[in-house]
TrEMBL record:
GO molecular function, one term: zinc ion binding
PROSITE patterns in the cross-refs: HCY
Binding residue positions for Zn(2+): C250, C317, C318
Organism of origin: Theobroma cacao
Residues spanning the signal sequence: none
Protein name: Homocysteine S-methyltransferase 3
GO biological process, one term: methylation
Any matching Pfam family: S-methyl_trans
Keywords: Metal-binding, Methyltransferase, Transferase, Zinc
Cofactor(s) named in the record: Zn(2+)
Start and end residues of each Hcy-binding domain: 11-332
Superkingdom of the organism of origin: Eukaryota
InterPro entries from the UniProt entry: BHMT-like, HCY_dom, HCY_dom_sf, Hcy_S-methyltransferase
Amino acid sequence: MGLEGVEPSVFVSDFLAKCGGYAVVDGGFATELERHGQDLNDPLWSAKCLISSPHLVRRVHLDYLDAGANVIITASYQATIQGFEAKGLSTEEAETLISRSVEIACEARQIYHDKCTKDSWDFLVDGNITRRPVLVAASVGSYGAYLADGSEYTGNYGDSVTLESLKDFHRRRLQILATSGADLIAFETIPNKLEAQAYAELLEEEGIDIPSWFSFTSKDGINVVSGDSICDCASIADSCKQVAAVGINCTPPRFIHGLILSIRKVTNKPVVIYPNSGETYDAERKTWVKSTGVADEDFVSYAAKWRDIGASLFGGCCRTTPNTIRAISRILFDKSSLTLSKADM
Ligand SMILES: C[S+](C)CC[C@H](N)C(=O)O
Ligand SMILES: N[C@@H](CCS)C(=O)O
Ligand SMILES: [Zn+2]
């Protein structure tokens, strides 16, 4: 789709208007691959399926489209040139796999729309079938995702990692994703201010002409995971004209309310929220462990509250499923039941 001269903020506000004021983002991508039987205990994590099972990558996008997603996020979170090369692939093969992640999501959208047209599934406006708007967001996981040690949940990259080294790390993949047919870039699970600054400078230097969102992770509801202030991080996103939305992902639901209020203090850009289930990630075993304390399983019921304090795009991250997304969609658009049982997660 591309910006074609449209301001990023206008592009997203038009999209939100077409969706009915709010948009539904998809849910845990890797989680759904695991539910389809994939073992992701690998340095490439979900990106390994771009090599071994692209048909499942397409299947997962279709699962989320069937559940009501308006934004599907590509399998490129942990797909990096450096990561693929470490597996013995050539640079060219790595670059092809990265663009392929976007092509597969676009194919899924086409399949979904063709099916809807055939079955007249989408809503009717004045007797005409209207397609549900669907954007393909190309995922850029943080440098910590590539490290494959869970450091997107700490943001501690050590002193050798600088603004320039982060820009060099991300540059080529960003160029590929921005020219691969995606509608926007989703910078996900950003753990610190340095990486947000690196992304903002790269967007400017590379003249990236599709909009982006910046989405941070937090483990206390006050700061991002590194301890940097969420307001400082969101301000970087606010100052970058190519950033069309700012928010939080892969963070326990109980922290989201306060984070939205903090983000709102420093930006009027739309807020995107896609929390995880509230469980804790064990990076060594690459598995999730149930946390004690607050029951986060019913977080879908919070979505209406997050909407009321100013968020606009809602989905789920790790350990959420198409059922979570179906329930979010129902709540946002006031369809039937407002409750979600644990079984729905
Ligand atoms: C958002 S985390 C669950 C992604 C996986 C992590 N980068 C790892 O490789 O262990
Ligand atoms: N888009 C990625 C984010 C991981 S935190 C996924 O859903 O697997
Ligand atoms: Zn996640």
